[in-house]
Amino acid sequence: MGTTVFRLPLDVFVGTKLFVIGDAKLTRAILTDKGTTKPMNMYENFNNMANGAISLFASNGSYWHARRKAIAPAFSSQHVQRMNAIAIANCDEWLETKLKPLAKEGKSFDAEREMIDLMLSTISESAFQYKMSPTEMDAFKEDLATVANYNLLKTSLGRWRMAISWLLTDRQAYGKAATRIQALCYKLIAIYKQLENPTKEPLSNSLCATRHTTMMQNELLTQMDSHGHTACCCDHIGMGTDGPCSTPTASGRLRRSIQQDDLQPPPPHQLESVHQTIRESMRLHPVVAVSARSTGKDFITKQGKLIPAGSLAVMSYFVVMRDQSIFAEEADEFKPARWENPTKDMTCAFMPFGAGQQNCVGQKLASVELHCILPRIISQFELIVDDPGRPKYVLVVSPANCLLKAKLVAHP
Ligand code: HEM
């Protein structure tokens, strides 16, 4: 059907025609079509992450609409600013108490682990006024990995597993991990409800107003897990093997462009070099690798081939955002300057937060946090890749076991 759109002959297993799509315009057209929905047979696995009920992320129609409307105020400018201030304070504490001592001792650190801890503490503090302990965070991450692996990789391998699941040790481990996650979510919600002066924060308010407790904790889990996306994004940006920190020249250039004495949150888009760096890193390393949709109408490919209504469309952001016909031959190279004057096609193809009505509800928060945290780290430290680790894909793409060394840089 053309190199970036093809059909996989798996109708028997999928129950409908399956198309894999790497074409930017077609991807955007499908995602923004009002009648197109999330294929529940693929997304429903997300709902088992904490033995839970349906979440915003894995629903459609009026249920989805009501949840989205309830959660949207949490990402208004006022609340994004408030949550971001907490992210900045946590980042500064991390730089002072962890990164500086590590830099002095010449020791390396696990980039993924540190960034996820930073984001987890930020979401629990900003939404629930609760500071998670390092032990709680470690247990949560381990449990989340267990339930994600089980639900997203194993259950989809075959329904027969469900029938004999009580015999399987990984099913038992999943059950225990899911129960612990559930308990943590209930605990955060209960603590918030007992606060004498809660911030009337819309995220926690909308969660606590939900009648159904399993639904409430599943939504909370979605928010906490989604914050991990920002963390992975930080990893890719500041720490990837081909990111700005991969060479002293690239990170030095970026550092020089950041005003050293003004580490207050710059209005997003003010620091062009930071903005371009973030865009380029998100283009090369989209943490959410694919979106899937059940098409609501017929679509026609560039080559004139039909994708009929009711098909399963799996769209790869990796392919779309590295398309050589849009990003030229050096599409795989890290070149932030390409965003100085982006073409219309580049802007259309750039969709790390998805597109359409079911795009990322937290993108404003994620973007503001990235624009604030990256300059804080880069302006004070040079990061050297000790071990690039390897890309890992469970829910999101992250650089697993990537070890970095930080070197304090002198202020001019
Ligand atoms: C750099 C960080 C992030 C990236 C790259 C990202 C990316 C995405 C993408 C691509 C989607 C669409 C998925 C699909 O079409 O299947 C999505 C959906 C979503 N994201 Fe994010 N996300 C990030 C951060 C966040 C944050 C911080 C939150 C909330 C605290 C969040 C909450 C959500 C939710 C709830 C949805 C489902 C929205 C709906 O279906 O209406 N995300 N995200």
From TrEMBL:
InterPro entries tied to this protein: Cyt_P450, Cyt_P450_E_grp-I, Cyt_P450_sf, Cytochrome_P450_Monoox
* Matches recorded under Pfam families: p450 (PF00067)
Listed cofactors: heme
Region: Disordered, residue numbers:
245-270
Residues reported in the UniProt entry to bind heme: C360
- List the molecular function annotations (GO) for this entry: heme binding; iron ion binding; monooxygenase activity; oxidoreductase activity, acting on paired donors, with incorporation or reduction of molecular oxygen
Q: Which UniProt keywords apply?
A: Heme, Iron, Metal-binding, Monooxygenase, Oxidoreductase
Q: Which residues form a coiled coil?
A: none
Q: Which family does it belong to?
A: Belongs to the cytochrome P450 family.
Q: What is this protein called?
A: P450/NADPH--P450 reductase
